[in-house]
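Form 12-C: Joint structure prediction
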Amino acid sequence: MSIQGRIFAISALAIAVAGCSSATLTEGTSLAKAGQTAASQMEQNATVSANLLNTLKEAVAFDDGYNEQVGNPASRTFLVNISAIQNRLAQYAQMLESLSASYSALGDLASYDASGTFNTSISTLSSDANKFLKSVGSGVQIPQDVGGAIKEIGGFAIGSIQASQVEEASEKIETVLKQVIPILKDSKTRELLVLNAQEVTAQINQAAVTAYATGAYSYDSVLDQIGAPLGLKSNSGSDAIVAKNTKLKAGLLNVEIELTNEQATSAGASYDKSVAALEALIPLHESLNNGVPLNFGTLTTIVGELQNAATSLQPTKGK
Amino acid sequence: MANGQSTTPPSAAGVVSSLASAADAARQAYMAALAANPGADLSQLYAKEMAAAAAWSDAENKALNSDPAVAAAKANLDSATQVIRNELGTIKNVSTWLNLLDNLVNLATTVGSFFV
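Section 2 - Result
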């Protein structure tokens, strides 16, 4: 082959490699954004649950006092046990925060030489994932090399070096996900985190429902909710009417009890959606590493559902 | 299998789930009594409810001891839980609820004793 021919072949190869590198970097940026969004939303849902646990103590204190059971040993046992579970929830939230940070660093890596930032992030994620796995009694550990620095790879174009680093970084995050997901799906872990969230939510709401039953709160918000489909609204005389009408009061109380049960169910759904979101990230990592275009449809849907779950888990604002 | 019950011992998660379900049923019974008897003294009912919640949360933090008797204890607890769930819309009387919850808590305590 002539010198010109060789130069042409090398140039063509360089252009092809640059094209592939460019696609990897673009897809890497998109994956990083999607992963960060998903992990942040999951963390928010886990944090909502952790905050609910703090409110629980006040709710149980109210229920104990209202029912003349101050110092009830069963209540004390319940709260001590729940505090232990709260620590595990905190580890779960911490791991999700580190996952979000690792995706953010992956995005940086796709834009410039941010290997230092990524190495710190993946090391923290690996450590936090191990702490979480230990907190739920799992013997699984993240392989040590995952937390190590990404390799410095030589290449004839900066873009291809960056692309290789993005692929390696993506593989590291994928490895963590693949280790953690089976544990999150394990029935014992699920029981621990989901049933806990459901029971805690229901217990918290019981205090509000008990106070509501006494007529301490205005009935307006529930009346307005029921009347909304027909555009009906409560007025300044509504509370007095309800207070005198036992049947009306019982009906509204039952609505509150139903809302309590719905919120408790949402707590479980939130966890399941979080695990589904993590699972939806795996094929995206695989596509990136195989040079296949990424399809974010499933993940986007799940993240939207997680946002709804987080909203329903927030304490409702009454009057 | 002659008595129609599975001989497979229940998993720890399954037993914890039964205790959680019992705790939830106890709470719903309290709420049902509250709805039917606003202003009534439900303190004893509440004490039972919290005892069921304590039995469940205790089990969450312990390991299930491998004992063949746990299967029957779990079945009895599940049965009592179901009775309460079936009666949520019908029973109004506080003392009737108290009897049912008393039985439920005894069974939950028995199941809880298999966790060490």
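Section 3 - Comments
The mean pLDDT of chain A is 83. Residues 21-313 of chain A form one domain.
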